[in-house]
Amino acid sequence: MLAAFAPIWALTAVGYLAGRSQVLGPAAVDVLGRFVFYVAMPAALLSTLSRQPPQGFAGKGIAAFAVGTFFIGGVGFAVARWLFHRPLGEQAIAGMAAGYVNAANLGIPVAVQVLGNASFLAFVLLLQTLIVTPIILGALDVAQREHRGSRWRRLATLPLRSPVLIACAVGMTLGAARVRLPTLADSILALLGAAAVPTALVALGLSLVRAEPTDAQPPRPVELVLSTGLKVLGQPLVTYAVARFAFGLRGVELLAVVICAGLPTAQNTFVFARAYGVDGRFARDSIVTSTALSMITLTLAGALLA
Fold it and tell me: pTM of the full predicted structure?
């Protein structure tokens, strides 16, 4: 299990050391974050989704995972809204921190090591990319632009302005039509996409050093405790209850659903926060803390359900 986490900590440490030495300059966090959001991440999504036809979300496992995701994400959103009175953008990031799992760079190696394969991760990635991500980006976009016109107009035109959603739509369309990109174009997109995860982790490490001038209220320790608890304990427990008692899953199927639900907060939470002008400290701390604690909770889940 430790081997799956090692690259995350190593690349975050690289970013931290780069920040301490200031070799990348004071604007590195913003520049790298925007590169991931506007260039590398869309390239990765377009390349990946266009290579395979979309699969339906049928199946008890992904249904249980979806229930856990939306329930815990909703709780995280509600806590930020009504308990801590955060603005809409921070509410969206809080919901994402509580329920959006690191399914790509961490989920795949964990699934391979614990389950023997990462087939269930394909459904998790599709669920998060095609359903959860547009909801989060919609809320962030409204929060950022609500003073520039009606919310409904902003939401209606969001797919035309978000490179992530455009990449998803084009990739899914090509995949459904079984149309492959030209070899050269696919190679370029794959090369760009491969930079998304390491760049996001380096940016995360940089943010641990950088003193950010902001008027935003800093996250309270109790907020971080609640968010991390929801992520590493609440989501796998709720998902387990739904999968076991509502859908009757057992054995490897139950283990796969719970392990995926117990993955820590995705680094995209930090990337989205920075891209939409939301204070990134809460997202950063949630990612670091949940990643550290999930090493324990995932190991326990694997031992109890294997």
Answer: 0.77
